[in-house]
Every structure is written in structure tokens, then in C-alpha cells.
């Protein structure tokens, strides 16, 4: 075990290099944003069951008040982030484009806050209480996936967890929110790490940062030098270093596939901002209400990071960032590699909104697709070691067997293949769609097989009944 | 109420690398310039006509076919020009121009367009056409004489046991096709492509290495550096290894596949050069290996990240 030397990197991936554009928002401190308009809280901001609203239209709510409770184990609570009145509970557009049932709160501008119960000091708190606090606070993975954190923190066998990895890689171009967090509140990140480490006695804490952020690495190394259980790793700068599977590999040498969880490799991975939320929840009983959002891109006058209350409208963020210089060609919620493009700015910041990227030119739309020349750049770039060019072709033919034969469902949708493709094929898009179709087909087939088996069992029983 | 304007949406990723097919083709054409210019300087002005006629006719046939078939015109992507240039560099210096036109027709229409155009050709179009021409017009295609130089190429002399100057073979002061004579010029172009990351060293590396090993074992001269240099510098080995075998479309896509491809190339070239009646065998080695690519691709599907053997199940 002690002989193991981490590689700090993985095979494949891409180097956006000078095009990562982190500089434009990197140096400016995080600015607090006070929302002016209505706040919108979609009941589904996480993976799992939607939360159930516990307020009625007309109710007055305070900042930090529970407005929707988790609709199951894999679900998360949602809190009001301002004081005001519940104006409506209706469908509202969310960043991914769907219409989702949402609680709409009219902001009264008073920001009256609820009293949070006193939290126990960290050395007196039990493991169950930590998980309960995280669950209560409605924390989900804030890197983008939105998996409820309390579920992650409750693996089958906690003793087998030997690494807790703080995913501070921030490999997406343009994004600097985690960087600003680490520079401005390093103690909160470390505090969150300590809370999680308390749950896993055999675990070592790794704060994994890409080496394009040397000042953050230096700062956190300095602050953790007296923490025997925490170590800072400088990972090689390469996209998608922050992918859960690949950061685990870079730090521990363990490779997991789509059917496995990080816990199967003895790892718990949490994003930088998630750890801050865990720290607030465990040490102060404050629920998840804020997140850092990078508002950036060449179409924005003053690109920078904001501390935003969840539910704030994206339009207000654009205003805060000085508005548009020119009409943007595309607006993306999230980073340029994995974000969703928005067709309408009237959407709220959710727990998983890491960035708002406004670009003058929609490169992806302008790219002209030409035939594949089999150059192999996508194969080289694929962090999952797949053959994207062939997968995309099979996807276009809807050939499920061939697609799955090449492990198409292992795709993490990172977009590296489309990025490097000289023919500008929409590789990631084709593979992504086919993956969804294939998963749906598997489910349908399984359901059909189950129904058939049940029917046969029924028939057999009837037969037996008849015979008797 | 103000009218809501919807913005355009695209799937991720939203940024793209600025490398395009056209740029790649242009880089390869640039990389062929040292060999082209050396060929013109060495063999004289007639070669300019050979190169121009081949390139222009290749582009013309591409345009004509696409026009007649109502396909999008792709002459601009540079692939037809590159095919034409490669074919020209594989021609003897005094080849009649009408053969060049036939060569372009075969390369573009027969080998490339009839199978679906760019990206669908199962073998290198330039080499396919060259082999067609060698079989159809053997007299013209194997006559490498120019000016006052006549007779056998140095590679053939080497095979028949005559003494040759290997230094002159490396520099290119010898007979042969327009582009293959100067190993130096070919290697300069290859280095350009490797440094830019356009081609990777896997195929030429394994190809040349396998060939040298094969030669040392079966060539009959053991480890004699004189013969090894002669074999490497003679004929189209370098041009073939760096510019033809690395053709994306007709070579495997995975590194493992490329290694197997290179080994097959090395062995086939060795077999042709050692055991066949002629001195040269690079063209045939490459097009035969091209035909094996679909098979190689089937054997070399890489294991995905975190792959777990199905029978074991559970932990990796």
C-alpha cells in the first residue's frame, strides 16, 4: 500500500491549453449577489426522486426555511434562500431545458433568516449525526451531476473506504469557481474534508487540484501540513481530469466502470463546493443555499465569480456581470465541454449550476461536418478508451449490438472526441443519444422479459390449480 | 410584453479544436514539398509537368465525379490534390503524361469515389493507382531512365550483388520514382508531420524495424550495415512508410492495430524484396496490408477503462 505511487493523470483526454480562458475570470474576487426578482426552486435539482413541496401558495417563508422535503432516500431537501411569499407552485423552465414543477417565491428584500439549531463541535458529533446533517441540509454533488451527498456518504461498508477525494480539479475550460473557493475560503474546503474523514476511519483525505492552479495547491498544502490525514495532490492539467472515474484513477490507480460506484474502489469523491456545503451543514447546521457561479465568456462585459443564492434568475447574473458586450451566439449553463446550451435565459440557478458561459460565436453550430477520415484522434482523446468514431457510426445506424459490443455505454459524455475531431463530427452527441436509447431499450427488454416470466408463472399456477 | 427571442442550442461540447481535415491535408502536402522539390531539381523540368498534370487531373476527376453524381463538391478539402501529388511522386521521371491522367482517374474514381469518397477507400488511392499502372503499363512504369542515366536502380543492383554507393542513395543521387529518391528529403517532411502530431511514429516505426529484422534474418547478409542502409535508402520504403502507410483512412485506428499493421507491412516488404523476382515491394506490401485493416480492427478493439473480465465479475 505504501509502495503505491499515484500517476496524477490518466490516459487520453485533451489539452485545451490557451483556449481554457480561465484568466478572464480568475483574478477577481467572488462577489455576493442579492436577488431582486422572484426566486424559482425546481423540485428536481438532483438525481433521484423529486422533492415534495411542504409550503402552500401564499405562505410566508424565511431564508433557510425548508420548502420541499426529500421524496425518498435518493432525493434532497430544498430550502428557501430569501424571505418572502410563495407566489406559485407551477412548472418552470430549468437550465437543462425541461419544464419542472417549481416553487416560486416573491422576494420581500428583507432577507429574514431562520434560527439554525446549535451544532455540536466536530469532536463530539457522531457519524450518524454527520450524515443526518448532510441529508437535512439537502446537499447534492455540486460539480454538476447532483447526486445526493448523504447517499454517497452511506456506502455499504464504510470500513473499506480508504480514500476521500476532494475533486478540486476544475478541468472544464473557463470555469474558476472552485479556484476562487480554494483561494478565498480554503479553511471551509478543509473543514468539509475533515467532516467527511470523520465518517471513514480508515480513509486518507486527498485534495486533488490540477497543476494549472499552483497558488491554490501551495495554499492548501500549507494549511494542511499539520493534518496527518489530509494530503494535497497536484494533478496534471488535462480535461476531463475532474471526471469522477478519472480522478479516482489519477489519485489511486483504481479504475472503475459504469456499473461500479466510487465506493467499490474504496473511494468517496466530493466536489470542492460540495465540501464547503458539508462544512456549513455539519458545523453550523446551515442548509445548502448558496453556490459559486462563474459568469464568463467573451460576450460578457465583466466576467467573474458570484456567490449566488440558489433560485436566482440567470438574467440577474448577466446584469451583475455588466450585461452583454454584444449579442451572444450561445449561452451555456456549465462549462463549454459538458454544459447545456440555453435557448431561454429565464431559468434559475440550481444546486448544480457551476457557470454561465456566454460566447460571441457558437463554434459548435458553425462547424461544418465532413466525412470521417479515420485519423484516430478521438481514440487518442477518449478517456474511456473507446473508439468514438465507430461508436458514432453505429449510433447513426441505430445498431444496438455493435454499439454495445464496443462498450458504448461506458461513455462519460465528456465531449473530448467531438473537440478533437478534424471532420467536426458530432461524435459525443451521437454516442450520448444512442446511450440513452440503449439504456431505455434495455429497460424495456427487461420489463418485457419480466412480464413474460410473470405471465408464464401465472399460467403454470393456473395449470397446477386446474390439475389439483 | 416583449417578444421572447430563442437562442440557438447545440449539444456539448461547445468549443472545438481548430484542426480540420483540410488543414491536415495541407500539412501533408507541405511535408511532401522537400521530396517534390528535390525530385524536380534532380530529374529536371519535365517532372513539373508530370506533377502538375497528375495533381490537376486528380482534382478534376474528383470534381467531375461529384458533379455528375450530384454530390457535394469536396475538391477544396485538399484530399484529391494530396492523392494526385502522392501518385506523381510514385511515377518514373519520364512517364508519358497520358499515363498520369489514367492514374488519377483510377485513384480518384475507381479506388476512392466508387467506394464512397473520402474516408471510405479501402486502400491508399495513390498506391492502388500505381499498382494498376505498373501492371497495365509495365514498360513505362518500370523505366526509370532519365537524361543519360539508364539501367537498373541501385536497389536492383544491390539485389544482383553489385556494389553501390549508399551515401548517394540517402541523399537521392540515383534513379527511381520522382519522390522516393531522396531519403533525406522524405525524412525531413516526415519529421515535420511527426512534430506537428499529424502522423504518429507507430506505423513507420514498427514497419521499418520489422523490415530490418526480417532482412537481417532472411536477407542473406546478416547484420551487414551496408546492405541494411542500402535496403532502407533504396526504393520507396521511406516514402511508403511515412506517407503512404500512415494514410489515416486505410490504416487501423488504434495503437495496437497500428503496431500489427506495421509488423505485417515489414514482413510483406521483406518477403517481396528478398524472395520475389523484383527488387521492390513496398507498394504491394502497403495495399495488401490495407486490405487486412478491417480484420486487424476486429482483433484490436481496446478494453474500455475499468474493464472487468465478465467471468470473474465483481472486483477488477
3D shape of chain A: globular
Could you say what the CATH topology of chain B is called? Ammonium transporter fold
Number of helices of chain A: 15
Number of individual domains of chain B: 1
The biggest sheet of chain B, with number of strands, parallel, antiparallel or mixed sense and barrel status, is: none
Mean pLDDT across residues of chain A = 93
What oligomeric state best describes the polypeptide chains here? heterodimer
Structural class of chain A: alpha/beta
Largest sheet of chain A: 6 strands, mixed
Compute the average pLDDT of chain B.
91
- Could you give the count of β-strands of chain B? 0
The Rg value of chain A, from CA coordinates, equals 23 Å
Describe the SSE topology.
The complex is a heterodimer of chains A (468) and B (316).
Chain A: H1 23-26, E1 31-32, E2 39-42, E3 52-53, E4 60-61, E5 66-69, E6 78-79, E7 84-93, E8 99-107, H2 127-136, H3 149-152, E9 163-168, H4 177-184, H5 186-199, E10 204-210, H6 214-223, E11 230-235, H7 244-252, E12 267-271, H8 272-284, E13 290-296, E14 304-309, H9 314-320, E15 330-333, E16 340-342, E17 355-359, H10 363-366, H11 377-381, H12 388-396, H13 400-405, H14 416-420, H15 427-467
Parallel strand pairs in A: 1-14, 9-10, 9-12, 10-11, 13-17
Antiparallel strand pairs in A: 2-8, 3-5, 4-7, 5-6, 7-8, 13-14, 15-16, 15-17
Helix pairs in contact in A: 2-5, 2-8, 4-5, 5-8, 12-15
Chain B: H1 21-43, H2 46-68, H3 79-89, H4 97-112, H5 125-136, H6 138-141, H7 154-159, H8 166-171, H9 183-196, H10 202-218, H11 225-233, H12 237-244, H13 255-275, H14 282-299
Question: How would you sum up this structure in a few lines?
Answer:
Chain A has 468 residues and is of the alpha/beta class.
Describe this entry's structure for a reader:
The complex is a heterodimer of chains A (468) and B (316). Chain A is of the alpha/beta class and 468 residues long. Among the domains of chain A are: 17-29 and 118-284, NADH-ubiquinone oxidoreductase 51kDa subunit (Rossmann fold); 368-468, no CATH class. Chain A contains 15 helices and 17 strands. Chain A has helices spanning 23-26, 127-136, 149-152, 177-184, 186-199, 214-223, 244-252, 272-284, 314-320, 363-366, 377-381, 388-396, 400-405, 416-420, 427-467, and strands spanning 31-32, 39-42, 52-53, 60-61, 66-69, 78-79, 84-93, 99-107, 163-168, 204-210, 230-235, 267-271, 290-296, 304-309, 330-333, 340-342, 355-359. In chain A, the strands form four sheets. Chain A has a six-stranded mixed beta sheet with strand order 1-14-13-17-15-16, with helices on both faces. Chain A has a four-stranded antiparallel beta sheet with strand order 2-8-7-4, with no helix packed on it. A four-stranded parallel beta sheet of chain A has the order 11-10-9-12, with helices on both faces. In chain A, a hairpin with an 8-residue loop joins β5 (66-69) and β6. With 316 residues, chain B is an all-alpha fold. Chain B has a single domain, classed as Orthogonal Bundle (Ammonium transporter fold), CATH 1.10.3430. The longest helix of chain B has 23 residues, at 21-43. Chain B is globular, with a radius of gyration of 22 Å. Chain B starts with 20 loop residues before the first helix and ends in a 17-residue tail after the last helix. The chains are: A alpha/beta (468), B mainly alpha (316). At the A-B interface, α7, β15, β16, α10 and α14 of A face α1 of B.
